[in-house]
Fold this protein.
Amino acid sequence: MEKSPSLIGGSCIIASVCVGAGMLGLPSSGAGAWTVWSILAISITMIVMTISGWMLLESFKHYDLKVSFNSVTKDLLGDKINFFNNITVYFVGGILLYAISLLPA
Protein backbone atom coordinates (compact mmCIF):
# COMPACT_ATOMS: atom_id res chain seq x y z
CA MET A 1 0.00 0.00 0.00
CA GLU A 2 1.44 3.35 -1.04
CA LYS A 3 0.52 6.46 0.89
CA SER A 4 0.66 9.85 -0.82
CA PRO A 5 2.22 12.85 0.96
CA SER A 6 -0.26 15.03 2.79
CA LEU A 7 -0.58 18.81 2.75
CA ILE A 8 -0.94 18.93 6.53
CA GLY A 9 2.26 16.93 7.07
CA GLY A 10 4.27 19.20 4.79
CA SER A 11 2.80 22.29 6.42
CA CYS A 12 3.73 20.98 9.87
CA ILE A 13 7.33 20.39 8.79
CA ILE A 14 7.66 23.91 7.36
CA ALA A 15 6.04 25.47 10.45
CA SER A 16 8.32 23.57 12.82
CA VAL A 17 11.42 24.73 10.91
CA CYS A 18 10.24 28.35 11.08
CA VAL A 19 9.47 28.12 14.79
CA GLY A 20 12.84 26.47 15.46
CA ALA A 21 14.73 29.16 13.58
CA GLY A 22 12.80 31.84 15.46
CA MET A 23 13.60 30.22 18.80
CA LEU A 24 17.27 30.59 18.08
CA GLY A 25 17.62 33.79 16.07
CA LEU A 26 15.00 36.28 17.12
CA PRO A 27 15.73 36.52 20.87
CA SER A 28 19.45 36.91 20.25
CA SER A 29 18.91 39.53 17.55
CA GLY A 30 16.61 41.58 19.78
CA ALA A 31 18.44 41.20 23.08
CA GLY A 32 20.34 44.46 23.10
CA ALA A 33 18.38 46.33 20.46
CA TRP A 34 15.53 48.77 20.79
CA THR A 35 12.06 48.01 19.48
CA VAL A 36 12.63 49.65 16.09
CA TRP A 37 15.81 47.64 15.45
CA SER A 38 14.11 44.43 16.58
CA ILE A 39 11.17 45.03 14.24
CA LEU A 40 13.62 45.77 11.41
CA ALA A 41 15.54 42.53 12.09
CA ILE A 42 12.31 40.50 12.21
CA SER A 43 11.07 42.11 8.97
CA ILE A 44 14.32 41.41 7.13
CA THR A 45 14.27 37.83 8.40
CA MET A 46 10.69 37.41 7.20
CA ILE A 47 11.50 38.81 3.74
CA VAL A 48 14.59 36.61 3.31
CA MET A 49 12.72 33.48 4.44
CA THR A 50 9.83 34.23 2.06
CA ILE A 51 12.15 34.76 -0.91
CA SER A 52 14.12 31.59 -0.12
CA GLY A 53 10.85 29.66 0.14
CA TRP A 54 9.82 30.94 -3.29
CA MET A 55 13.19 29.90 -4.70
CA LEU A 56 12.77 26.41 -3.25
CA LEU A 57 9.31 26.15 -4.78
CA GLU A 58 10.67 27.13 -8.19
CA SER A 59 13.42 24.53 -7.90
CA PHE A 60 11.17 21.71 -6.73
CA LYS A 61 8.39 22.18 -9.28
CA HIS A 62 10.54 20.61 -12.01
CA TYR A 63 11.19 17.41 -10.04
CA ASP A 64 9.24 14.38 -8.90
CA LEU A 65 7.11 14.70 -5.77
CA LYS A 66 9.31 12.41 -3.66
CA VAL A 67 12.70 13.91 -4.52
CA SER A 68 14.92 15.06 -1.64
CA PHE A 69 16.49 18.45 -0.99
CA ASN A 70 19.89 16.77 -1.22
CA SER A 71 19.35 15.37 -4.71
CA VAL A 72 17.94 18.65 -6.06
CA THR A 73 20.93 20.58 -4.71
CA LYS A 74 23.36 18.04 -6.19
CA ASP A 75 21.61 18.13 -9.56
CA LEU A 76 21.40 21.93 -9.83
CA LEU A 77 24.57 23.12 -8.09
CA GLY A 78 27.04 20.21 -8.16
CA ASP A 79 28.81 18.04 -5.61
CA LYS A 80 30.92 20.71 -3.89
CA ILE A 81 28.00 23.03 -3.18
CA ASN A 82 25.90 20.04 -2.11
CA PHE A 83 28.56 19.05 0.43
CA PHE A 84 28.65 22.61 1.80
CA ASN A 85 24.84 22.67 1.91
CA ASN A 86 24.75 19.41 3.89
CA ILE A 87 27.26 20.78 6.40
CA THR A 88 25.15 23.92 6.92
CA VAL A 89 21.97 21.86 7.36
CA TYR A 90 23.69 19.70 9.99
CA PHE A 91 24.96 22.86 11.71
CA VAL A 92 21.46 24.38 11.87
CA GLY A 93 20.06 21.10 13.18
CA GLY A 94 22.69 21.01 15.92
CA ILE A 95 21.99 24.60 16.90
CA LEU A 96 18.25 23.91 17.07
CA LEU A 97 18.86 20.87 19.27
CA TYR A 98 21.00 23.03 21.53
CA ALA A 99 18.30 25.72 21.66
CA ILE A 100 15.65 23.15 22.56
CA SER A 101 17.83 21.78 25.34
CA LEU A 102 17.93 25.27 26.91
CA LEU A 103 14.15 25.51 27.21
CA PRO A 104 12.84 25.31 30.76
CA ALA A 105 11.23 22.02 31.65
Notes: The chain has a mean pLDDT of 80. Residues 35-60 form the longest helix (26 residues). Helices lie at 7-29, 35-60, 69-77, 79-101.
